[in-house]
Amino acid sequence: HTVRRQSIKRGEPRQMPSLPHTAESTVREEHFSSRRKQLEDYLTKILKMPMYRNYHGTMEFVGVSQLSFIHDLGPKGIEGFIMKRSGGHRIPGLNCCGQGRMCYRWSKRWLVVKDSFLLYMKPDSGAISFVLLVDKEFNIKIGQKETETKYGLQIDNLSRSLILKCNSYRHAQWWRQGIDEFIRKHGKDFLTEHRFGSYAAVQENTLAKWPVLCLQTAHAMFSSTPFFFIRLSPEIFMKRPVVEGNRWRLDCILKRKA
């Protein structure tokens, strides 16, 4: 901490703000609004100080990560630490080869909820381990009977059943309600099937027109003239749900065509 204090740039706030000393039980009802303002000012001052803002305990308390406020990733849902069970993939080769609870592993991960997907990251490095897309089979179950886990939470889509373990039933209920309400509000277009069997809704008045039949588009790239260019991530799956491994991943399709 001494090294950190000495390395703080000049001009940055250095003095630790103080919380009100009055006990909560002694605050009168007419003073609640001013008390709330004091707490807001305290948190604001804390978050203006890089040393405290970037501290993992602060980020966990506020519920934010390095992906929270990236505009292109969509609106921010709830975030936090969870215990994730291994397995649950519906893609051959990605599941544990054994059977029963002895084969499962539990890992601590940081779960991020967005409008069209959920992802979890490794807490030490921030590396994204898995992305769970919101699709027409997206569903959330809670309880030991459904998940075979005490205080368990199960999130399903077409490619995976993700099992989470919470600290209590109330904690599991908080995650379930937070995810469900956020997805229903911001990602409802991905919960139903659209024309031509597409997972995405038709977007009007947009600068970029995404082809609904992605496979036909990929084929047209090699069979029609003049050529045109599509800027896409090479890891995107052109056919969903993902039930045949990486066969329909864009870079694998291009490799076969080449």
Automatic annotation (TrEMBL):
<dbReference type="GO" id="GO:0035091">
    <property type="term" value="F:phosphatidylinositol binding"/>
</dbReference>
<dbReference type="InterPro" id="IPR001849">
    <property type="entry name" value="PH_domain"/>
</dbReference>
<feature type="domain" description="PH">
    <location>
        <begin position="75"/>
        <end position="184"/>
    </location>
</feature>
<dbReference type="InterPro" id="IPR001683">
    <property type="entry name" value="PX_dom"/>
</dbReference>
<protein>
    <submittedName>
        <fullName>PLD1 Phospholipase</fullName>
    </submittedName>
</protein>
<feature type="region of interest" description="Disordered">
    <location>
        <begin position="1"/>
        <end position="30"/>
    </location>
</feature>
<dbReference type="InterPro" id="IPR036871">
    <property type="entry name" value="PX_dom_sf"/>
</dbReference>
<dbReference type="InterPro" id="IPR011993">
    <property type="entry name" value="PH-like_dom_sf"/>
</dbReference>
<dbReference type="Pfam" id="PF00787">
    <property type="entry name" value="PX"/>
</dbReference>
<dbReference type="Pfam" id="PF00169">
    <property type="entry name" value="PH"/>
</dbReference>
